[in-house]
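Repro:
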Amino acid sequence: MMRLLCTLLLLAITNSAHAHKPSDSYLTLKVEGEVVQGQWDIALRDLDFAIGLDGNGDGKITWGELRARHEAIAAYALPRLKIASEGQACPTRATENLVDNHSDGAYAVLRFVAECGKPLAAVALNYNLLFDVDPQHKGLLRLEYKGTTTTGIFSPDKAAQQFDLSEVTLLRQFLDYTREGVWHIWIGFDHILFLLALLLPAVLYRSKKHWEAVTSFRPALIDVLKIVTAFTLAHSITLSLATLGVLTLPTRLVESAIAASVVLSALNNIFPLFEGRRWIVAFTFGLIHGFGFASVLADLGLPQDALLLALVGFNLGVEGGQLAIVSVFLPLAYYLRGTRFYHRAVLFTGSLLIMLLASIWLVERVFDLKLLGF
């Protein structure tokens, strides 16, 4: 159990100082006959690390510094994306350079075109951006063809993928966004640690100001179901409202509140403030976490022809990934519930570590700092 907790904390630290948004790029391809129109959004922080953008070394990247490196960005990025059809390469060339903001900062926008010589029935992609310097980097693909959209995720072990354009169906879109939902709960370490902090006492109960082990599995299961259901209901509400454009909040406020929720849920395990009411905490802060999920979904890009289907698929994926975590945690926690190891190492020390990491996230997000050097 402690090994599992430490693994999650280590992954959270080493992947990103921002926790919710590891290194991603956003690749949009639109197939029109024999031509592929492309847009590639790449984080300035990643490009600065790879090829250098901050010309004067003052820690800030100006538009002038970015503009001076436009050709270098294209020369770096385009060779790391191979587009082919029926075994024939489709040469790419840059057409425009812009800049845009995503939920985690500024991105260079590289627009390009690939000419394949004949209409495409399938497209083969080989993506190798940043894998040599950051093996945790992911490329998020949005592929548009005749009004339908499919998605994909490129990683070092899935750098080459082929997409059959004739198979871009509503079912395929649903499954794609479900997979995206699973992936993003697994890399959303602040969401995971919030949920984990709430679940750590589920196999215990308070007696005379001390934690005691539950005597049967049933009360622990009921407590977990209440917490997970409350969290699911809450973030589903705000995820839907934000994705549909009904209600939005500033990203910085949302990310700061998410970090604060992790701090408070971990602190509650050491100095209980919400005894027996952790499901209320899960629901209250789950509303904020839903806005965080929405920012991820917005960055992926939603197909307007299947907006509701993609939203439902993504949300189900989040729940599936969440339940997978719970299914591993609960039996193990129940087995260890009566041991000194669980009380001291897992509940107390684990909560302290979660609180410490989340406190750093909170300071970073409130004051727009980068305290962690990775």
